[in-house]
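Q: what sequence does this backbone want?
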């Protein structure tokens, strides 16, 4: 479960930075 949470957080951060640029 913890690894899945890390992946979800990573994907959300990646989408956030992609939207920022």
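A:
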């Amino acid at each position: 479960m913890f690894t899945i949470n890390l992946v979800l957080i990573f994907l959300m951060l990646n989408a956030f930075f992609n939207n920022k640029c």
